[in-house]
Structure formats: C-alpha cells, structure tokens
C-alpha cells in the first residue's frame, strides 16, 4: 500500500515540475480540459477519504457492545495499532495528494488560460465546504493567481466575475457563511482597480467611466471586511506560516480572529463519541441549572462542536506552504499599492473610535470588532516571518510604494495598530541584511518622533506592553 500512494505522489510531482516550467512534453495532457480533470481528481480524493471515515463508522456500529459503554465509540477501541497506523498513512498520503493537486492547478493557471466556467466550477465546489475545512487551502494559490491576473483574461470574463461578485455581496447573510469567498472578492477588487486603469485598445468602453469607483470598488471592498475577508486572510497566513505559536511573546491571533474558525483537518479525523456525549451531557446539566437560576446559556447541546480522536498530527506539507507564500505576498503588495484609500479609511476610523472613548479596556473590546488594519499587519507578520527573501522586497527600493507604506504605517495614534505594526517590522527584520534595513528605518522614525509623538519608535512603544498585558495572551 505504501508503494501505491508513494508512486501516485511521484507522478504528481513529476507532472507538477513540467507544468510549472511550461514544458512541451506535457502539451498533450495539459489542454483546455485539464482543469476539469483536476476537479475530478480533487473529488476522487474526497470520496476516498469519505469512504475511510464511513468504514470506521460502520466498524463502530458492528463492534458496539451494549455491556461495555466504551466499546465501539472510538477508533482506538476497534482497531489494532497497526491498522490505525495504516489508516493514518492513507489519510496523510491523500492529504498530500490533495495539496499537490492544488499546486498543479496553480501551475496551470500560471502558464495557461483558465476558462471562466472552470473558475466558477472550482469556486462553487470549495465554497460548499465547511468554513473550517483545511482542504479549502489547496485551492487558494490558483484562485489568488487567477484573480490577480485580470489583464490576461478576456474583458467579458472580468466583467462577468465582477457582476457575479456584486450579486453575492447583495446577499450578505449567505456570503457570511463562506468567508473564503469574501476574501476572494477582496483579492479581485484589489486587482480590478488596475484592470480599470489599463488603456486597452480592444476595450469597447472606458472602464473607469463604466465602473463608478465608489459603487463598484470602494463600498464593496469595505463590505468584504464586514464579512470577514481580512480575518480570513489572517487565518490563512497563520496556518501557512513558518512561525510557531510558541515563538510568540504576545499572541494577537485569538484576539483578532474571533468570528472565523481556525482550519481543522476534519476529513482526516474521527469523532470521539464518548467525549462528545459527555460534553453535551454537561451542557444539558448546565442549561437546566441556568434555567433554574434565570441566567442565559452561552451554548446549547446542539451547538457543541464535535470532539475528534487525535492519534496522528496532520499538517500542511512544507512544499505546499513554500508554494503559497510568494503568491500571498504578491497580494499584499497589490493591496498596498492599489488600496491606499482603504488603508487610510481603516486607520482614520479606528483612531476616531479611540478618541471618542474614555476607558482603554472598553475601547479595546470595541476595536477588536473592527480591527481590520491590525488583522492585515498580523497577517503580514505570519507571512513574512522567517522568509528572508520575501521580506527583502520591502527594503530593496526606498522609493517604492511598499517602503512608503511602512513610513505611512509608522505614524499612527492607535496603540493597538502600532503594536501590531511592530510585529510586522519584526517579521521584516528576518535575516541580517533585513535586520540592518529595519534598524535604519527605526532610526529614521526615532528621529521623526522627536517632533511627532505618534511615530513608531522605541521610546514611544514602551508603554504598550503594560496596556496589553491584561488582554493579550502572554507566551
């Protein structure tokens, strides 16, 4: 069995190599029907994983012993250690295959033209997943690339995508159930700005006049934030980061990611029926007690998350993580370049909210609900930590928009924004050369802080630790 799954992965790796270099050796395979074939492969992996889970559930039922309350409720009580290892190996192999399929799709999008119908088929497929399904991540490199390459698409395709996304935004309650789509809308609109500015001789109309900015770009982008787009981006960057939680002094993620669940490999795990039943029973008892006391109940038994058996750690493959990083970084630079108006709006809105409050802790609770700029900074922290080459792009040209963004971000009234921006700077200091650039940048801002108390500097940031020590988890 091991050789079977290993050979499958080798075949995908070889095909991935030739697709990414756009080799003529695979032109007979990589044609217009290739995306449809990939989608079927994705579905086959999902079906095989479902069949494994179903077989385990059947084993629970067949092995259930009414005289033994723990019998049949856990995979550990049904199968031998060797069988469990075999099941975990199959699942882990299929998970790696799924990520390789995601890389194949991304390689195809990079060098070939993905049809609009194929894009819609993939979008419809993974949008049906649960919001916490980690398998969604396999589609993100290709989707980011596709929506970032609008100038290479037929004009009518771009217009159709815009129309589709605007329709989706008119149903916010439904869209809120799929925050990953809200993020993709943000990616699209970020690049749609550039597309509208392009002087395309084949275009029949002036795009900037056809698409009124406020109605077709500004307001929809703000709406995606309300639907969790930046919180979703933070979650993706955190789960594809090289930085472990244990390496953090202050962990801002639980504070800033409160509405969107973290990604979990639920397709690869089995439910612990005993532990789940015990938790539901405890909640039922608490609910009854609260009713007697006349107090509200936070969760009902029906709202309880399932508890899964954890006998193997499934994680994203290092190759897939490295594959994603530069693609997500390209989005960050595009967002900085094209969405300065949004960044300014987010900062001004939070500063106004901060100035209108009197109690810091009260303001902090309110700010966390709309802390989109902080989510962007923390996402950047996860993305650029321990990635020296990507971080160097911010320092390579002091006249670039990216460097100008750092200068702009260093001037702020909000201590929460400044704190998270300092995290971003720490990530951009990865490597000796980047560290020197960061040091020089801080020297400049320290000099500026003598005349501006709102500039990021060592002296101005000392008080932040005391302010946040009671509300941010300390590691």
TrEMBL record:
This is Unnamed protein product. It comes from Ambrosiozyma monospora.
